[in-house]
Automatic annotation (TrEMBL):
InterPro entries: SBP. This is Extracellular solute-binding protein. Keywords: Signal, Transport. Residues 1-23 form the signal peptide. The lineage of its organism: Bacteria, Bacillati, Actinomycetota, Actinomycetes, Micromonosporales.
């Protein structure tokens, strides 16, 4: 399944409640002052949310290499449930020194002082893609180094495409072309597009029309605008005319499954679909192209994690040198080869795209990608938005956007 979305949805909020409850409004992590620092050899505890054996082994090997060359020790533990375990350890005051932080959880942790804002201490931190730096910036500080990232693109089943009588000339590059191509596919009795039913997919259409859910500084809700309304009306038109269907309408858990089963000719997913199709549907032939541009230009969404360092760590300096090693261009390329992630540093972009030419479209998306909402206390607001989007076929786009603004205003205004 799509790891960066479905797993997160399943665990979001389980432990954040404990974390935020114990640390809300002035009773947070900052009152104890800086943890006493140890300058001797460090024994770093590192907690990761692993996608599987390949990732666990790659990070453990990289950590062992860093430890032996630096005279420290580093223990890498893959979490069973990262959000829950991290939330509990932070709330309990015994966090690991270094840990993966998902973009969607980042602001909750940063806002209560749980994270050390070390980002600009990493060499050449300006080399991280700007959209990723923005995602991990809170109150004007780059808190943590982006680990890797993914973006959304359009996948096309080439066999079904040909079966519908389509050629390369039909590959859609605009919304109008997407509609026209989808109509040709539907006329041949196939479902044109499998589309995920949450903001993590539909949000790309908002970006393509120059809109988004929050202001750039994350302080004002901006959902109820003509740009966002036109985007949601367009998505609704695809759904009501049968040109797009949600996964549940296609008897699938996510769009990649519907696409793999041949239930739709196109889908919109991230580069994680590659591994999922290889594992579950190895015979599906497909190609990947950029998402069609909207009236205001190209737009996609990015999903990312960073290397968080605990504000309570006794080994902050050593932790920073560890992250420095993990985010070097060379190490990022090793991780890319080991478990398929895209490096967060622009300087290895050409190296990456020559090693993985099929992923160039995803990397190119970094230039026009919008990161997730990374404002604290927005979890229930975003869940409510997703509920509204899931009912979009029969719902009112204007109401969905107005509800988001109303709920977001209350969350942003609260302590």
């Amino acid at each position: 399944m799509a790891p960066r979305t479905l797993t997160r949805a399943a665990v979001a909020g389980l432990a954040a409640v404990a974390l935020l409850g114990s640390a809300a409004c002035g009773s947070g992590f900052d009152d104890s002052g800086d943890a006493a620092q140890s300058s001797g050899p460090a024994s770093l505890q590192i907690l990761i949310g692993s996608s599987g054996e390949a990732e666990t082994k790659a990070v453990q090997d990289a950590a062992a290499k860093w430890a032996s060359s630096s005279g420290n020790t580093a223990t890498v533990t893959p979490a069973q449930d990262l959000t829950q375990q991290l939330g509990q350890s932070l709330a309990g005051g015994t966090p690991p020194d270094v840990f993966y932080v998902d973009a969607a959880r980042f602001a909750d942790y940063a806002s209560v002082g749980a994270l050390e804002p070390y980002g600009d201490k990493i060499s050449n931190s300006g080399d991280f893609y700007e959209s990723l730096r923005t995602t991990f910036t809170y109150d004007g500080k780059l808190y943590c180094a982006p680990k890797d990232f993914s973006t959304l693109a359009l996948q096309i089943n080439t066999d079904l495409w040909a079966k519908a009588g389509l050629t390369d000339a039909d590959v859609p590059t605009t919304w109008d072309q997407l509609t026209a191509t989808a109509q040709k596919i539907k006329a041949k009795g196939q479902v044109p597009l499998a589309l995920g039913d949450t903001r993590d997919r539909i949000g790309a259409f908002l970006v393509q029309n120059g809109g988004w859910l929050l202001s750039k500084d994350g302080k004002q809700p901006t959902a109820d605008t003509p740009e966002n309304l036109a985007a949601l009306q367009y998505v609704k038109s695809l759904l009501t005319s049968g040109l797009a269907k949600y996964p549940k309408q296609l008897d699938a858990g996510w769009s990649g499954e519907a696409f793999g089963k041949g239930k739709a000719v196109m889908t919109i997913e991230g580069n994680w679909i590659k591994g999922a199709l290889q594992n579950d549907f190895p015979n599906v032939k497909y190609k990947v192209v950029a998402l069609p541009a909207g009236p205001k230009g190209q737009g996609t969404l990015s999903f990312t994690q960073c290397w968080g360092i605990a504000a309570k760590s006794k080994y902050k300096d050593q932790a920073i040198t560890f992250v420095e090693a993990m985010t070097s261009g060379e190490q990022q390329m090793s991780f890319a080869k080991a478990f398929g992630v895209m490096p967060s540093r622009q300087s290895v972009r050409d190296q990456y795209t020559s090693a993985f030419p099929a992923d160039k479209v995803f990397v190119d998306g970094a230039a026009y990608a919008q990161g997730p909402v990374n404002t604290p206390k927005m979890d229930s607001v975003l869940k409510d938005l997703d509920t509204g989007l899931q009912g979009l076929t029969n719902g009112d786009p204007k109401t969905v956007l107005q509800n988001f603004d109303k709920n977001a205003k209350a969350a942003l205004g609260g302590s």
